[in-house]
Design a protein that fits this description.
Blueprint lengths: L1 E4 L12 H10 L3 E8 L5 E3 L6 H4 L10 H5 L19 H8 L4 E6 L12 H11 L6 E5 L2 H10 L4 E6 L6 H8 L3 E4 L6 H9 L3 E2 L7 H10 L3 E4 L2 H22 L3
Parallel strand pairs: 1-2, 1-9, 2-4, 4-5, 5-6, 6-7, 7-8
Antiparallel strand pairs: 2-3
Helix pairs in contact: 5-6
Length: 256
């Protein structure tokens, strides 16, 4: 079961940041999940929100600013003064840092109210992933399944993951159209039946965002393929403890 750092390296470091990714790699996480927004100058920056205020203290919308404008803004000090000076990354910088040392779940943010502004997104994203040799270790995920379909039609070798929460009446039809390698359901919708049905179709399951120890253990017992968490250190400890228990049981059994 893979441990996936939510927004990079979890909640103890600045989200979607260089420091966060470095922390994830230092921990030896199996994968990281990051968020990217398209910008006014047709680039991608690591950022979670459409509104920049929460992390930067400034007013503005991510998609209406250029990458140069966004990269002047500081995002680390709201976590800790230790991270003061942390800046927003371009997607290419993040890909160069990860460089296949961990798998990547790349969440593409976009709003359906701005469709005309985003007609370039999927083609440019595919181009960047190919140029950075990131196709083999990246799964592009989104709540916007129409965007995923566009990407699937443009780049058949790009791996797709479907994020969803709440009731999704056309889920099976969309799975047929998108041929995803993974489903990423909200943790409250992740059930043994869903895991079994997905695996029977060759689709992996990664619930999000799982921060409770008991639910981490429960999903591990369900056989999910990975867990997206803000607490990767805790999940590492639980996995190590489970490994020690398994080793002890096998050792005791060998003496029967």
């Amino acid at each position: 079961m893979k441990i996936v750092g939510h927004k990079g390296g979890g909640s103890t470091v600045p989200e979607n940041s260089r420091t966060g990714l470095e922390h994830a790699l230092a921990l030896g996480l199996d994968a990281v999940e990051i968020d990217v927004w398209p910008t006014a100058d047709r680039k991608f920056v690591l950022f979670h929100d459409a509104d920049i205020a929460r992390l930067t203290g400034h007013a503005g919308w991510t998609m209406h600013l250029t990458s140069d404008q966004l990269r002047t803004l500081e995002i680390g000090s709201r976590v800790s003064t230790e991270y003061a000076g942390e800046r927003i990354l371009l997607l290419e910088e993040a890909l160069a840092l990860i460089a296949g040392k961990a798998d990547l779940f790349l969440e593409v943010k976009r709003t359906r109210h701005e469709l005309d502004r985003y007609t370039w997104v999927e083609e440019r994203l595919s181009q960047i992933l190919h140029e950075c040799n990131a196709i083999s270790w990246t799964t592009v995920i989104s709540f916007d399944h129409r965007s995923l379909l566009n990407l699937h039609e443009i780049s058949r070798d790009t791996r797709i993951g479907m994020l969803y929460a709440g009731e999704w009446l056309s889920l099976r039809q969309e799975i047929e159209a998108l041929k995803p390698v993974a489903l990423l359901p909200h943790w409250a919708q992740t059930t043994p039946t869903l895991v079994k049905d997905a695996h029977s179709s060759g689709i992996a399951i990664y619930p999000w965002v799982v921060n409770n120890d008991e639910w981490m253990q429960e999903f591990s017992r369900m056989g999910v393929d990975g867990i997206i968490t803000d607490r990767p250190e805790a999940l590492i400890q639980l996995r190590q403890a489970a490994g020690r228990t398994t080793d002890k049981t096998e050792s005791e059994g060998s003496h029967d």
